[in-house]
Amino acid sequence: MIGKLIGGNLSKGNEMNLRLILCALAGIAVLSARAADEPKLESIFNGKDLAGWKVPDPNPWWSVVDGVMVGQSTPEKKGNVIETQKLYGDVIVECECRWNGDIDSGIFLRKGQKWQCQIGVSRSLKKDMTCSIYNGTYKGHEAQGVDKLLKVGDWNKIRIEAVGPKFKISLNGQQVLEWESDKYPEPGPIGLQIHPGVAMKVEYRNLKAVALDEGKVAK
Q: pTM for the complete prediction?
């Protein structure tokens, strides 16, 4: 058929090659269309200072070192949560996170610090619960397959999609959790945690976010 359309001069082998090329071009077009539809995430950490974040005063916890946001507990093991000045409702958040040993951190979304993507070891369960959702419990929203994806002591990419009552979390490019709950409807800041009671250090870089309901969320 293709040979007839272009003059009937193609051999079967050449026609097959042309079919493959056309299929590849169609695939590229589909991928390009999807990329165009993907919301563009913007940096929420400039790599130089803590502009755009509500910095505690005094601030013994959070610093910027070589383009990395570093969170570290005090000698008394006091914790802290640093939050963005901007509020987000429906949002996509991405970051890279690195830690060693026994830490307890996390990413808060929505109002009131009631929804958290856990990073590191749960104080209550005494085991690593990275990418599970903590809302007072982990029951019913534990991440799956994290042990095979987590790069211990290295940078791990975490992506969170929060759209209405639906939440998806991915680790290093693989989705590990999908959960739905209508208990967290109100917008809030993005928060990063240093849990009290543990000597810990956690590092964040390439922190990005995009508000998917920009017109609905207070700035």
A: 0.82
Q: Which two tokens stand for residue 146?
A: 């994290």
Please identify which residue in the block is written with the tokens 């929420």.
44
Taking the CA atoms of residue 174, residue 177, residue 180 and residue 182 in that order, the dihedral angle to the nearest 10 degrees is -100
Is pLDDT at 34 greater than 50 in this prediction? no
Calpha distance 115→188 (Å, rounded): 10
CB 83 within 8 A of CB 71: no
Angle at 83 between CA 181 and CA 99, to 5 degrees: 90
Predicted confidence (pLDDT) at residue 113 exceeds the cutoff of 60: yes
Helix ranges, the chain (H): 2-5, 12-37, 146-149
C-alpha dist (Å) from residue 66 to 70, 74, 155, 178 = 10, 21, 15, 34
In this structure, the dihedral spanned by the alpha carbons of residues 204, 206, 211 and 212, taken in order and rounded to 10 degrees, is -120
CA distance 137 to 134: 5
